[in-house]
């Protein structure tokens, strides 16, 4: 018992980011009232990239559960047997129940980055620019090119990505090799050159984290372990600390939990805020009708 308490104390630091844990419904209301204007783009396209198995597909499922205020059975999530994401697919989330409208943001999950193999930088650039057609199966040996039917020759504002979100497990820097870190830095620079904002989420804080956070997610911003992980990502790949969001995905529960939702909603709010200011599409900012709350 004493050992557990001293372990908690050793990890505990002054809270470095405040989060209003009681404001889930307000955040959901904000989200429901968030609209883009008529015309194009019809949605913000959020591209997810990061190491294989980091929780990219789970994040999409989790956002769907949180936004619909209803636990959604995970689909296409890694079990280790043929569930790695290989195909480029657009995921939409229903806002008004079956048959109703969708939220004006969509997610695309890229094939994972790996130390030696994994998705090619060129394919990530093509996805950011909107050249990759739905259902394209990524090839680790060869990038998509304009001779392929899956290459969109003239991407519209709806095909282009508005924000690139890196998805990284919280213990990433304990296991990562130099090449994958270098690849992430290259992807980030490529996004910058295309005028696409980037941010990061740190997943698996319930599993690969300190006992303090495993016990109660509300300690997330009072944990030295998490702060170190955020700073490592910030220094090695170049994100401002304000653009890194630790969270836990839904993966093995039967229903929603407020603290999981709040962490997901705070990351989603940042995704939308940054996506709205995408430089490759100056219309987005002008057309966005921001709710006042
Ligand atoms: N404990 C815990 N497990 C998670 C979390 N996020 C994802 N997982 C698990 O991690 C494994 C990989 O998750 P995926 O969502 O398939 O990861 P991915 O990044 O899409 O993987 P690839 O498509 O192979 O690149 C699955 O078993 C998930 O259930 C999390 O926040 N906490
Ligand atoms: Mg996946």
Topology:
Blueprint: H1 2-11, H2 24-32, E1 44-49, H3 56-67, E2 90-94, E3 102-109, H4 121-129, E4 163-169, H5 172-175, H6 178-193, E5 197-203, H7 211-215, H8 224-237, E6 244-246, H9 258-275, H10 282-287
Parallel strand pairs: 1-3, 1-4, 4-5, 5-6
Antiparallel strand pairs: 2-3
Q: Kindly state the percentage of residues in helix.
A: 25-40%
CATH 4th-level superfamily? P-loop containing nucleotide triphosphate hydrolases
Overall pLDDT: 89
The spatial strand order of the largest sheet comes to 2-3-1-4-5-6
Described by the principal axes of the CA atoms, the overall outline is: globular
User: What fraction strand?
Assistant: 5-15%
For the termini, the CA-CA separation is 45 Å
What's the architecture, going by CATH?
3-Layer(aba) Sandwich
- What's the CATH topology name? Rossmann fold
What compounds sit in this structure?
A: guanosine-5'-triphosphate, magnesium ion
What is the H-and-E element order?
Answer: HHEHEEHEHHEHHEHH
Given as residue ranges, the uncertain stretches (5+ residues, pLDDT < 50) are: 282-293
| Main sheet makeup | 6 strands, mixed
Total domains: 1
Note the total helix count: 10
Rg for CA atoms: 19 Å
Write structural notes for this entry.
There is one protein chain. With 293 residues, the protein is an alpha/beta fold. The chain has a single domain (2-287), classed as 3-Layer(aba) Sandwich (Rossmann fold). It has helices at 2-11, 24-32, 56-67, 121-129, 172-175, 178-193, 211-215, 224-237, 258-275, 282-287; strands at residues 44-49, 90-94, 102-109, 163-169, 197-203, 244-246. Strands 2-3-1-4-5-6 form a six-stranded mixed sheet, with helices on both faces. Helix 2 packs parallel to helix 9. The chain starts with a helix and ends in a 6-residue tail after the last helix. The chain binds guanosine-5'-triphosphate (GTP) and magnesium ion (MG). Magnesium ion binds next to helix 3.
